[in-house]
Amino acid sequence: MSALIIDGKAVAREVREGVARSVAELRRPPGLATVLVGEDPASAIYVANKRKLCTAAGIRDLHRQVPADIAQGELEALVEELNGDEDVDGILVQLPLPDHLEARAVVDRIDPAKDVDGLTTFNAGLLAQGRQGLQPCTPAGVMLLLEQAGIDLAGKHAVVIGRSDLVGRPMAQLLTQANATVTVCHSRTKDLVAETSRADVLIAAAGVPRLIGADHVQPGATVIDVGIHRTDTGMCGDVDFDEVREVAGALTPVPGGVGPMTIALLLRNTVQAASRREEMSP
Ligand code: GUN
Questions:
Q1: How far apart are CA 124 and CA 112, in angstroms?
Q2: What pLDDT sits at residue 95?
Q3: How far is it, in rounded angstroms, from Cα 142 to Cα 27?
Q4: Which atom of ligand 1 is nearest to the CA of 266?
Q5: In 3-state terms, what secondary structure has residue 136?
Q6: Per annotation, catalytic residue among 94, 135, 173, 272
Q7: Distance CA 27, CA 62 (A)
Q8: Is 137 a pocket residue for ligand 1 (Cβ < 6 Å)?
Q9: pLDDT in tens, 245-281
Q10: Nearest residue by C-alpha to atom 3 in ligand 1
Q11: DSSP assignment string, 96-116
Q12: Is the shortest distance between the CB of 95 and ligand 1 below 6 Å?
């Protein structure tokens, strides 16, 4: 039987509509400062999409474009300037950065209250302790997709492939908080098929095109594909969609699965940051 295809576009649209309603209830429109360093084509497309949907939801677009050869100190100074700017509720420094820059130091300059990517050490620490904070957009989006698809995670075996700060690590923490039993696989995992084929819920965030085939998947499992790759034959994810759809119980497509959720959660985090800041100010 063919898998249920989880429609990320539809869920993301609902989230964005909710964001637009919340924006209308704030004293002033929230502001999001995306920071793009250089002209990397893929990053430029991602940031353009974020800006377009941010404006459509009533969030002010306070984008900053800086040259690829910007010095570390200059970029950190820009982050400090945005931290101090009353109009800015959210700051997102698009990653990856050019090789001469140290991304961790730049990200950790972001005021945790404006860290709408949830990537600062402070917010990562809150998440690790299961406390309230701004959460990374992609894993938070995956959790919402699972919820909307009616997947109950309690007691389930979830396998996450990947251990990045952006996806794998926070994903494992969110699944643990939802009472799943979590295994994290990575490039040094000895027998990937043995691990993934025991998963009730499989999250593929390895960054390897079509890594996951039918052999990796337990019949009836839920498979979430976080990968996105442009190949000669078009876009694909970390999952071989045509093979896996014949085995899985539910599956996200690429495009139209996790991708739209990442942006929707960024907008939701921006509203969350703005309303917290509003509560704190007289
Ligand atoms: N590059 C790819 N995905 C992301 C993301 O979610 N946030 C940031 N800042 N950079 C990215």
A1: 10
A2: 97
A3: 30
A4: 6
A5: coil
A6: 94
A7: 18
A8: yes
A9: 999 999 999 999 999 999 999 999 999 999 999 999 8
A10: 95
A11: SPPTTS-HHHHHTTS-GGGBT
A12: yes
- pLDDT reported for residue 281: 86
Q: Is 135 a pocket residue for ligand 1 (Cβ < 6 Å)?
A: no
Single out the catalytic residue among 89, 115, 117, 238.
117
Q: Could you please state the CATH topology (level 3) that the domain comprising 27-113 is classified under.
A: Rossmann fold (3.40.50)
pLDDT digits (tens, 9 = 90+) for 148-189: 999 999 999 999 999 999 999 999 999 999 999 999 999 999
Please give the helix or strand (H or E) that residue 126 lies within, else none: helix 121-128
Among 34, 35, 36, 46, name the best residue to mutate to test ligand 1's pocket (greatest count of ligand atoms within 8 A of Cβ). Answer: 46
Identical topology for domains 27-113 and 137-260: yes
Q: What is the pLDDT of residues 206-249, one digit of tens each?
A: 999 999 999 999 999 999 999 999 999 899 999 999 999 999 99
Residue 72 catalytic? no
Q: Is the pLDDT of residue 282 over 80?
A: no
Mean pLDDT of all residues in 96-104: 98
* Matching residue, tokens 């950065």: 97
CATH value of 137-260 in 1.10.3720.10, 3.30.70.100, 3.40.50.720, 3.30.70.2750: 3.40.50.720
Q: How is the chain split into domains, by residue range? A: 27-113, 137-260
